[in-house]
Structures are given as C-alpha cells and as structure tokens.
Design goal:
heterodimer, A: 284 residues, mainly beta, six-stranded mixed beta sheet, 0% helix, rod-shaped, B: 104 residues, alpha+beta, three-stranded antiparallel beta sheet, two-stranded antiparallel sheet, elongated
C-alpha cells in the first residue's frame, strides 16, 4: 500500500466564491411559463469541471448556454441539462429574443437529480419574471412568486358575439387577471324596449357580481358602454359613452368569466367593439 | 389581421391580438333570446318559478343558472396541448376596419 493516496484535487484558487458543487448525476432544469409569441429564453453561466487526474492541467471555467423556446399557452416548457462533475460558478436566465413584459414570462431554475424521466428536484436556484431587460441571477437568491409584482398590462379585443347573443370572456388557464376596464358598443334594433346591460363575473358556474348601466338604452341607438372604477355619474345624453361603475382590485382566476347579461335584449341587438384592460399574472 | 368566425356561436374574433398574444375563444352561455329559442324548440325545459309558480321566463332563468351550448368551443388548452373543446370549428371571417387609420 502506498504511503500517500493519490487523490485528484481541484485547484483551490479556481474554486470560486460561492460555487455550487454537482456530481454529474444532477442537472440544471429551466422551466418557463410564457404567454407571448417569439420569445427565446437562455440559461447561461460558467462551469468549472473537477480535476480528474493529478497530471492534468488545472481546468478553467467554461461558459455554457442553453436556449429554450417556450410555448405561448402558459404551460411549463422544460429544458434539462447535465454539466458533469464540478462547480456551477454563476449563471443567469435572460430573454434573448422577443419582448415580453413583466407578467408575460416566468422562469424557474432548479437543480434536479437525473436528466430524463422522473426527476427529483433538489433545490431551486432562482425563480421570477424575466423581460428583455430584466434577468434572473442564479446566485442572487431571487425568489419572486408568480403573482408578485405589477403584472402585465394587457388591452384585449374580445369576441364579437352574434346578434342577440351576450358577451363572454374567459380567463385562460395559467393566468390571473385583475379587471381594470371593460368597453362594448351596443347597437340596438328598432324594436322598442329598455335594455339594461349588466356586466357580470362568474367563476365558471356561479355569478358572484353584477353591475348594471345606470340608464336604460332604448331603440335605434349605438351606445358605447364603459365600465370602469370610480364612475359615479349618470349618462350624459350628449356623450357617446354610457359610463358604469366597476369594483376595483377584483382578481379573477383561470376559468372565471366576464359576461354581459342584458335585460330586454332584442333579436336584432348587436354587441361589438369589445375591448378590455386587465393586469395579468401567470399562475403556474 | 386574421379573423375567425366560430361555427358554434357565431362569434367573430382574432386569434392573435394586437400585442402578439394568443386569444383563446370560448363560446358564451346562451342569452335569454337563445334560451327562448331552445325552449321553443323543445331542447330544454325551464323549471317552475317558486315565486310565480309558473315556468321561469328565459330572462329570469339566465340570471339563476348558466345554459351552455352542447357543442361549445373552448380554445383553451389542456395540459397535453390540445383544445379543450373543438365545437363545430371555425371559418375565416372578414377583417374589421383597422383601429388606426393614417390619413395622408
């Protein structure tokens, strides 16, 4: 038996300040939830491989970069990469293509065991929203929740229903909305009736709120109904807008619906020009 | 901008919005008028109104419960990436007038 065991050692000078040691059986996993088209996300950093033999040169840090094009349906898109045995010295997640806003693209970087099949998450290195200019650092201890922050401000054009039908807009899976304003044009037929549009919100089954316009809309008119927070005045007959109030800070989960239910809606009445403003967060 | 018409509900929408995000159309529940047609066509019966002791009117019924279309289209995706419900499909629809018109 030799007097001294030959144990390969890394060069201490290159061990880094706060490196993360991996054995080669672990991998970095990038998960991205996204709602915008044209986005590419990259996980990059530097890796220092362990020194395998005494007689080899001291390894030097090598950069790595793994790109991922996430789907736009707010469902997680994954990329898992092994790095070998050594130290992850540092790293970042950044948007390399596309222009997502805060609230559009959310990334999680985790250390997992294995690379294929059933993986075990060992630790989470960073998670939060990323934009063209806002990145995530793997050593920055950033742990932003899905519903943290200001959310993405979105102006959405809704479906124009058939004549005599009502408006219905559904919060998509993986999203949480805060309704800021809702506008629709109601063009009434010549049939005499006092229409009262109500904006309702339901959870997919049960209605839990409804807000009528303060004034009825009569025949042969084109009224732009505008629901928004802070309204307290009644209809001005000389304005093309019919304002109506809307509660503030209502957050709506996936599957919740924003609908109209119009008293005395007539066969030839037509809703159109539906536009609404929401703040959107992803919800993984 | 591409416009589609839902062949289930007749709604017209753009599958990609101006901000580049996808729009996932879902058919609305029946309006009071559509429910009245369904009742007249024998497709559904309205319950007795406990107040009037007569069958509910469609206008009252739609405030008490939601009447969905049997062939409802729901473009939101399931975890496997497929549509929740295809309904009767879609057809191209004429593009609407643009929101901004530049006048020379």
């Amino acid at each position: 038996m030799p007097d001294v065991l030959a144990v390969p050692l890394q060069t201490p000078m290159l061990a880094g300040g706060a490196p993360l040691y991996v054995t080669g059986e672990e991998a970095l996993q990038l998960s991205v939830f996204n709602s915008v088209t044209g986005v590419t996300v990259a996980l990059s950093g530097r890796f220092l491989a362990v020194k395998q033999r005494d007689d080899e040169e001291d390894p030097l840090p090598k950069p790595f970069l793994h790109a991922l094009v996430p789907t736009t349906n707010r469902v997680a898109t994954l990329r898992t990469e092994t790095l070998g045995e050594g130290w992850i010295l540092d790293g970042a997640v950044q948007v390399t293509a596309g222009t997502p806003l805060t609230g559009n693209t959310y990334a999680i970087v985790a250390l997992v065991r294995g690379a294929k099949g059933a993986l075990t998450t060992l630790s989470v290195l960073a998670q939060g929203y990323i934009t063209s200019n806002q990145r995530l650092s793997l050593d920055g201890n950033v742990m932003q929740a899905f519903t943290d922050g200001a959310g993405a401000l979105r102006s959405i054009t809704g479906t124009t229903p058939a004549a005599g039908a009502e408006i219905s807009e559904t919060v998509p899976p993986g999203a949480r909305w805060e309704l800021q304003a809702f506008k629709a044009l109601l063009t009434t037929s010549a049939t005499a009736a006092n229409r009262v549009p109500n904006l309702t919100i339901d959870d997919g089954v049960n209605v839990f709120g409804g807000w009528p316009t303060p004034n009825s809309i009569t025949a042969s008119l084109a009224s732009t109904i505008s629901w928004g927070p802070g309204y307290s005045q009644a209809l001005n007959a000389n304005s093309s807008f019919a304002p109506a109030s809307l509660p503030t800070l209502w957050r709506l989960g996936a599957g919740f619906r924003i609908r109209t239910n119009t008293n005395a809606l007539q066969v030839g009445d037509q809703y159109s020009a539906i536009q609404y403003l929401v703040r959107e967060w992803l919800e993984g | 901008m591409v416009q589609l018409k839902c062949l289930t509900c007749g709604g017209v929408y753009s599958p990609v919005l101006a901000d580049g995000l996808q729009y996932f159309h879902v058919c609305p529940p029946l309006s009071a008028l559509e429910l009245a047609d369904a009742v007249a066509g024998g497709k559904v019966m309205l319950p007795i109104d406990p107040v009037t002791l007569l069958p509910e009117t469609p206008a009252v019924a739609v405030t008490r419960r939601i009447y969905e279309r049997a062939t409802k289209r729901d473009e939101n995706v399931k975890p496997d990436g497929t549509l929740k419900a295809n309904g009767k499909g879609t057809a191209p629809a004429p593009a609407p007038a643009p929101g901004v018109v530049v006048v020379p």
